[in-house]
What we know:
Layout: E1 2-9, H1 14-33, E2 37-44, E3 56-64, H2 68-76, H3 79-82, E4 86-94
Antiparallel strand pairs: 1-3, 1-4, 2-3
Amino acid sequence: MFYAIISEDVTDSLAKRKPARADHIARLNALHDAGRLIIAGPHPAVDSNEPGDAGFTGSLVVAEFDSLAEAQQWADADPYIAAGVYAKVTVKPFKRVLP
Length: 99
């Protein structure tokens, strides 16, 4: 089943994101390589694909896991959590309708 992992950043998270980004991306690439990643990316803090110093307000990952517990466990191990980037992470089932 698919699960949405919706993360909300702490205020001014950009400085915390940068050192943990490579490890964060590596985990997403592993999901992609396994054919389980549907979409992933950050939410820019401003209306721009390149927000610069404004940074980001959170992230969205939609991926396939065997259970909600497995999706939650994967989300809990995100390097951004250890780095203090995320203030809140919500994991919930996602039903893909389109495309």
